[in-house]
Design a protein that fits this description.
Number of helices: 10
CATH architecture of the domain at 213-349: Beta Barrel
CATH class of the domain at 213-349: Mainly Beta
Structural class: alpha+beta
Number of strands: 35
Distance between the termini: 37 Å
Radius of gyration: 26 Å
Strand content: 25-35%
Mean pLDDT: 82
Largest sheet: 6 strands, mixed, barrel
Low-confidence stretches: 1-25, 152-184, 189-199, 561-573
Shape: globular
CATH topology of the domain at 213-349: Cathepsin D, subunit A, domain 1
């Protein structure tokens, strides 16, 4: 059951002006009389810490409130420590994280009103049960002077405009319910929700690379900084070490040299990935930072590797030394023996929410820790539940549609579906792959430009013989839609354009757009939604609440502009391009 409550948007640490509602007026005392600031702080805390979230507990909620009150935005809103302590007391004396509870308001013989928390409304036998249905959660504000409920709190929508910024921090937008969006992401039922923007800055990381080579982020380890692939399908951090002879031979630089902050744990371990790449090495504990304060993390100093630092390319340009290792964003359950989870460690040692989000462009992208920046979306995310029994970030794929028509293969055909930014393509079970390839290849425009369904089993990239631009192909070819159950019981549908789903775009240095297969046969692998199918989306991994959200992205440069702007003028002289080029190597998840 989801409760509703008043939502106030807050931006850049400044609360929007609002009248003080009865629901919050009582959380004041002789020292703390600024009811408006207290209300803004409490709304922010209740939304950020998940007062009404399914699965939340009162203990976790109270601990979150205590941590969040220490953030600069909250201390600026409530400079007096006594007022922050008062707010903490009010939230501790609440039914947040107690979905069945109520505040019982009883009028005593002397006319005073006693407020107490009871296990359920029926347990309030001598008074008025008040609570979440009215937006009233605390003993401090649920009861009116006459012993009745303080009054219903109406849900209102506040529109907030957020300017795009090149800064490395952003305002966090928390996970909201399913949203009806008229572009890429939609749900089967219409609903309107508000988006609350907690004001404290979030770590935001610029990514380089692409779906084929992997997306790369700068990561500090000890006193050194490395370019590491970010991967949601694994957990362990592995970095090429000075002792790795096979690493230096492939041009990998710099190499990790454990310094004063490092401790040799005395273990050796390794990892193998779905594309056959592997590495092994010694476990060290060292300070690691990904645009945050450093945390102590057991990691692997890679001593040997097989095909991990092999050939990679973005837009037909080789990037053999673009990265020196990998940082997994997965949970501890996927960590190789003796190592740990960076995000698990970060969540336990900071006030950031247990969520991360990515925007994966055709070239480069962004990673946010603790939330996402709504300036990079055109609508709020629609969420689907994670599969609780999977150690991966996995969801339930219920249907695949080509041009609006279901493939008719049945939901059981997909199995558990991984959302993995470290995999290049959309990986499908063989029967689903064949059905999709056949359906797409039945389209005349596809036939005239890419041939038969066998195109998808090959590894060639084709320049449209008809000279069709990306926008023309997307307008003329059938869309690919992925359907999932929403967190509210409806259906979330991701409708993806042809060139960002079953086709994978690669531009040469002259700006010619080639299209490679964007789908692969799974074989023994599970169904995987890889990076190419996420290009038009901002994807939110809400680890705390066990759900993944998708929103239409904005802010990615067209791939053609990105490629041409990165090339010297001597390489962009027009020449007759070949009609076909070999596809670059694709990446897959860990085994």
């Amino acid at each position: 059951m989801r409760w509703s409550w008043t939502t106030v948007a807050i931006l850049a640490a400044l609360p929007l002006g609002a009248a003080v509602s009865p629901a919050f007026a009582a959380c004041v005392d002789a020292h703390c009389t600024d009811a408006t600031s207290i209300e803004s702080a409490r709304v922010l805390l209740q939304d950020s810490c998940g007062c009404t979230r399914e699965g939340e507990t009162h203990e976790k909620y109270s601990n979150c409130v205590k941590r969040t009150l220490k953030l600069p935005a909250l201390t600026a809103l409530l400079p007096d420590k006594r007022c922050r302590t008062l707010v903490l007391q009010c939230e501790r004396a609440s039914i947040c994280g107690r979905p069945d509870a109520a505040v019982c308001c009883v009028t005593k013989k002397n006319g005073s009103v006693k407020a107490s928390i009871v296990a359920s409304p029926v347990a309030c036998k001598k008074g008025h049960p008040c609570g979440g249905s009215l937006g009233l959660f605390s003993r401090a504000d649920a009861c009116a002077a006459d012993g009745s409920c303080a009054g219903e709190t109406s849900t209102s929508t506040t529109t907030t405009t957020v300017a795009t910024s090149s800064s490395t921090t952003s305002s966090m937008a928390p996970a909201t319910g399913p949203i009806t969006v008229t572009s890429t992401v939609s749900t089967s039922t219409a609903s309107t929700t508000t988006t609350t923007l907690p004001p404290f800055p979030l770590p935001a990381v610029s990514l380089t690379g692409c779906a084929q080579s992997g997306y790369v982020a700068p990561v500090s380890i000890g006193s050194q900084t490395f370019a590491l692939i970010v991967d949601s399908g694994s957990t362990t951090l592995g970095v090429a070490a000075a002792a790795c002879a096979g690493c230096a031979g492939t041009g990998v630089s710099p190499l990790y040299a454990p310094g004063a902050s490092a401790t040799d744990v005395g273990l050796t371990t390794g990892e193998t990935f779905g594309d056959g790449a592997s590495w092994s090495g010694t476990v060290f504990r060292d300070e690691v930072s990904l645009a945050t304060n450093p945390v102590l993390l057991p990691l692997v100093a890679i001593a040997t590797q097989q095909k991990f630092f092999g050939a990679a390319a973005c837009n037909f340009v080789a990037v053999p030394d673009a990265y020196q290792g990998i940082v997994g964003l997965g949970r501890a359950a996927l960590a190789v023996p003796g190592t740990g989870s960076y995000l698990d460690t970060l969540e336990s040692t900071s006030a950031l929410g247990d969520v991360f989000a990515v925007q994966l462009c055709g070239s480069g992208g962004r990673l946010w820790l603790g939330g996402y920046d709504p300036a990079f979306t055109t609508a709020a995310p629609a969420f689907t539940p994670m599969v609780a029994t999977s150690p991966f970030y996995a969801v339930t794929l219920s249907d695949v549609l080509v041009g609006g028509t279901s493939l008719g293969v049945g939901a059981s055909s997909f199995g558990t579906t991984l959302v993995d930014i470290g995999t290049t393509a959309l990986v499908l079970p063989d029967a689903v792959f064949s059905a999709l390839a056949t359906a797409v290849a039945a389209d005349p425009v596809f036939q005239q430009n890419f041939g038969a369904a066998s195109f998808f089993d090959g590894m060639s990239c084709i320049l449209s013989p008809q000279g069709l631009a990306k926008a023309q192909l997307d307008a003329m070819l059938p869309t690919l839609a992925l359907a999932f159950p929403s967190t509210a019981g409806a259906t979330v549908t991701l409708e993806l354009p042809a060139t960002e789903s079953y086709l994978l775009q690669q531009d040469d240095t002259q700006g010619n757009a080639y299209y490679c297969p964007g789908i692969e046969r799974a074989g023994s692998l599970p169904t995987i939604i890889g990076a190419n199918a996420l290009h038009t989306l901002l994807t939110v991994f809400d680890r705390r609440h066990g759900e993944i959200g998708f929103a239409p992205e904005q802010g990615c440069m067209p791939l053609n502009d990105t490629v041409l702007s990165s090339q010297p003028s001597s390489l962009t002289t027009r020449a007759q391009p070949p009609g076909t080029r070999p596809a670059p190597p694709y990446r897959r998840r860990r085994e």
